[in-house]
Every structure is written in structure tokens, then in C-alpha cells.
Design brief:
With 384 residues, this protein is of the alpha+beta class. The protein has ten helices and 15 strands. Helix content is 32%, strand content 26%. The longest helix has 39 residues. The N and C termini lie far apart (79 Å). The N terminus is likely disordered. Bound molecules: zinc ion (ZN).
Length: 384
């Protein structure tokens, strides 16, 4: 299979009908490299589909061909080069006395081996050069969002989080160690393996004509809204999660649920599944413990939304672009719009009926014309 990048404009112009009438897999063309999903340079390519080998790779501390994701608490070490931040190489870090032997190899990026290293929160570093600093993870996530290293960053943050959380065996409490071949922590006492873990969660963009439902949680910055989100519970399919969360959080019924795309979300370790759904019934009635507010917003008058690095924002942008495109097409048919302005089904039926009538007319026009002509021509002869 060959996968290619799409331009941002192509994504923005994603067909509304494609989004809402057809099932879409994560291989949708509408959501590609922005979400780190379909980059030509995928993690699969970077890892070369080899077995995981995170402990057997030797490092060369003078090399420019090794990239280090250096975490300390909730921050990541970045280097500034030509007004842009980047992941530092081994040679840039050799001036610091770091415990490199505690590294994990996480794959390759552009033929460069990538490692992560979790530094203790309290670890003191010598005065840092002007071009190097620790950045909060969310800031680093945004700063690197447009770069090819982005998908490796998502992987690095999630493995870093998993590494910190699995220092001891969950069954017997013994100190764990990295398994040599798998992405797992092994317990030497009880033999249990703890694999990398993440939590599945759903995002759903609910629409009603030219409106979308947006909500804000108590933790959002002032004025910020987003589409609904929620974690999958044990025993649920993601589709069931969507229906349950929507009912619990805003009290409405939905229909026409469609899968759109997925996105790793490393805060701390989630995998988001994006859906669209149409409002079916009910008025908004929010769960006040979960939400601060929820409203229907016109697509022409939206509040502050999350950064475009997030799948939720990309879904909103794609939906609005598609809806506006459809409205322009529909506005070319004012008569049809006035017949059924709020009923897409009736509008489609009317268009189909008119088209069918046109085709029939075209097909029968000549025989009818010939018949009428021959009738007229025959008239005088038939007269007494
Ligand atoms: Zn154990």
C-alpha cells in the first residue's frame, strides 16, 4: 500500500458527504500527517519492522546520529537551532554528566537511533547553555507538531510515562527490569511481564444542521470549548462509549455515528478515537460534575478551541470546511432549499426525482416530438 501526504488545504476541503455518509477508517485522506497518523515517514518505517531491541543498541556520545529524548518530571530537554527547537544529539549532550546507561532505544528517525532517558525530577544540571532548556511537555508537543520527528515524540512521551510507572512489579512489588526483546518490563521474582499501556478514549463531534455541540470542563482555560471526550470503560466497544458518554454528559441522543480517525495523545498516555454523530433527540442537560457548560454553536460563530495539533480541532476544522462547501453548493439551488431547508433527506430525494424526470424527458422527447409532428401533419388528411 502506498500512502501519500495530503496538503492541508485538501484536508480542509474534505467532503462533507464523505465524512457523514460513508464509513471511514484511520486511512482516511482527510486526516493525515497533522495528527501523526499517516506520515509517509511512519514509526513502522522508522523502526524497520524489526523486533524491539531497546537495550542492545550501543551509544556513541560523540555522534550526531543519535537523538535523545531527555525527560525530567513533566519536561523535555530541547535545543534551539536557527530559531527552531529540536531534539538534541549525543554530541550536544556529552558536556553533561548524564546516566546514559539507563537509556531505552525506541526506534530510528531518518536513520538516527532514538533513545529516551528519564532523569530524576530532583537531578541538578550545570548551568545550561543559552540554546538548551527544559520545556513543559505540552509546549514541546506544540513546538514539534509540524516536524517529522513528531510521531517519535509521541512514542517517546508515552514510553517515558510507562517507564516511570512500572519501576516495580504490580503483582509482587519487586524491582522490574527492561525485557531485552519486547517492549515490556520483566519481574525476576514472579516472572510477570508488564507491557506498554495506554488508555483508549473517544472524541465525538456532534452536529445539528449548521451547529456543533461544544462543551467545556471545569479545568479548561476561560472561554475554551471542545468537542466531547471520554474514556472507554472495561467491557465496552468505543462506539458504546460514545453513546454512553454523550448521554451522561449532555443528555442527548445521537445517530449516524461515524468513525473518522485516531491519534496518540501522550497526556499522559491515551489513544483517541474520533467520531462524528448527528443529533437525534433531546435538549442539552449537562452533568455538572463533569462539565462547566455545553452549547450548540453556529459554525460561523465558534468560541476558543484547542490547538490545531489535536485531533479534536482537526475534526472541527474539517467538518466546518465541508459543511460550508456543502452550503455553497446547496445555495445554488434556492428553490430546493426553500422546499426543504432543514431536511437533507427530502432535498436529496427531490434532486433525485428532478434528475430522473429530466432523464425521462430527454429520453422521450424525440419520440414525443415525432408523434406530435406526425399527428399535426396527419390532421388535414384525416379531415373529411
Ligand atoms: Zn513480580
Amino acid at each position: 500500500m502506498f500512502l501519500f501526504r495530503n496538503s492541508y488545504n485538501n484536508r480542509k476541503a474534505a467532503s462533507f458527504f464523505n465524512q457523514h455518509r460513508l464509513f471511514q477508517s484511520s486511512l482516511s485522506q482527510d486526516f493525515s500527517n497533522k495528527a501523526g497518523i499517516l506520515q509517509k515517514n511512519t514509526l513502522l518505517e522508522q523502526n524497520g519492522m524489526k523486533k524491539y531491541d531497546h537495550t542492545g543498541i550501543e551509544t556513541d556520545h560523540t555522534s550526531q546520529n543519535e537523538l535523545w529524548f531527555l525527560f525530567r518530571g513533566e519536561t523535555l530537554f530541547l535545543q534551539t537551532q536557527e530559531n527552531s527547537v529540536t531534539i538534541p544529539t549525543s554530541s550536544a549532550l556529552k558536556q553533561f554528566n548524564l546516566p546514559f546507561e539507563e537509556k531505552q532505544h525506541i526506534g530510528k528517525h531518518d536513520s538516527k537511533n532514538c533513545f529516551i532517558l528519564n532523569l530524576p525530577k530532583t537531578m541538578e544540571l550545570p548551568a545550561l547553555p543559552k540554546d538548551m532548556n527544559f520545556y513543559p511537555l505540552r509546549e514541546a508537543h506544540v513546538l514539534l507538531a509540524e516536524k517529522s520527528i513528531f510521531s517519535m515524540l509521541l512514542k517517546a512521551i508515552q514510553i517515558s510515562f510507562w517507564d516511570k510507572k512500572t519501576q516495580f512489579c504490580g503483582s509482587c512489588g519487586t524491582k522490574t527490569s527492561l525485557d531485552g526483546k519486547m517492549m515490556a518490563k520483566a519481574c525476576s521474582d514472579c516472572g510477570s511481564l508488564t507491557f506498554a499501556q495506554f488508555s483508549p478514549a473517544m472524541l465525538v463531534l456532534i452536529w445539528r444542521n449548521d451547529e456543533i455541540l461544544l462543551a467545556r470542563s471545569h479545568t479548561f482555560p476561560p472561554g475554551r470549548y471542545n468537542i466531547l471526550a471520554g474514556f472507554v470503560e472495561p467491557g465496552e466497544t468505543v462506539e458504546e462509549t460514545v453513546v454512553r458518554e454523550v448521554k451522561e454528559e449532555v443528555g442527548i441522543e445521537i445517530k449516524n455515528l461515524r468513525y473518522v480517525a485516531s491519534q496518540p495523545w501522550p497526556f499522559p498516555s491515551n489513544l483517541m478515537f474520533g467520531f462524528t454523530a448527528e443529533h437525534a433527540a433531546g435538549n442539552i442537560c449537562i452533568d455538572q460534575e463533569e462539565l462547566d457548560d455545553a452549547q450548540w454553536f453556529s459554525i460561523d460563530n465558534l468560541p476558543s478551541l484547542p490547538h490545531s495539533v489535536s485531533l479534536s480541532r482537526q475534526m472541527v476544522d474539517a467538518h466546518i470546511a465541508s459543511r460550508k462547501k456543502m452550503n455553497i453548493q446547496t445555495s445554488e439551488w434556492p428553490l430546493l432549499k426553500s422546499i426543504s431547508p432543514k431536511t437533507p433527506f427530502l432535498r436529496r430525494t427531490t434532486i433525485t426525482a428532478l434528475a430522473a424526470t429530466g432523464l425521462l424527458m430527454a429520453g422521450f422527447w424525440k419520440p414525443m416530438k415525432d408523434y406530435v409532428q406526425s399527428y399535426i401533419e396527419d390532421q388535414p388528411k384525416n379531415r373529411p
